[in-house]
């Protein structure tokens, strides 16, 4: 199977666009791949890297998947989004580092899917190591690729160190930054990179892709609407139970609005397991959806205030505060906001 078979249609378009620019010599040495998480930025970057490093004599077939460079590239057995599908599990333990001319920095390349925040910072030492390795002669072929994912994890010193590398381009050296939050990168870095922007695909294409991933029509459409047109997020929610959780949250909020459930009881249930944060994300999202269907500015303001409160409460859950009490306060407020709406709707 070729790697292309793993591409969603929007990923294929991004890849072909970038590959065309590479082949035509229109791509600078620094590229910023940005756009929402879970759209496949890393998958596209990996395929491009393999294309750049491939040693097939025929440029039209790169990456060929057959040459020594391709075999080396694919031998990397660190966390790899291609190996992760379809159940999200990791196929290999930490092992072979892969192609020596592919330099990968950032927690996205680690085995641990989501390390604690303090462990995700990219330091100046890591960037200096990257720059030193990028400056040496390639071990195979005539190119080297460095990829930083997620680039916004660089601290100030790391970003400053990277600027030097960005300002001194060397032929055959590519530096690619991946970011779902490019606004968090220093403007000096952004302005020195060519931008490849991933956008949400048209709804029809997204639903067709979700169906191709094995999801039924109805659930695919429901999840896509809940994820505001983001197929990668909808797919993740359908796989990891996120959609079922969202339906539960919506049902609980409806019960609270009609006084059919007690805020404290619901709060206890919401904070009894690991999904408390996810529930509050869904709840805030549902409030935003509700507000979108309203015309009364006063009610829209109340829902917006509740949306902010839900996000603040979610932040509080990281601290030592009693989670059930914080959430109970929030749900009590929901009864006031949404209960009034329910009455209004009946009038
Ligand atoms: Zn090859």
UniProtKB/TrEMBL annotation:
Gene Ontology CC terms: DNA polymerase III complex
Offer one example of a GO biological process linked to this entry: DNA-templated DNA replication
Q: Name one GO molecular function term.
A: DNA-directed DNA polymerase activity
Under Enzyme Commission nomenclature, its number is 2.7.7.7
InterPro entries cross-referenced by the UniProt entry: DNA_Rep/Repair_Clamp_Loader (IPR050238), P-loop_NTPase (IPR027417)
Its recorded reaction(s) are: DNA(n) + a 2'-deoxyribonucleoside 5'-triphosphate = DNA(n+1) + diphosphate
Q: Which UniProt keywords apply?
A: DNA-directed DNA polymerase, Nucleotidyltransferase, Transferase
Pfam families, A to Z: DNA_pol3_delta2
The protein here is known as DNA-directed DNA polymerase
Q: Which organism is it from?
A: Luteimonas granuli
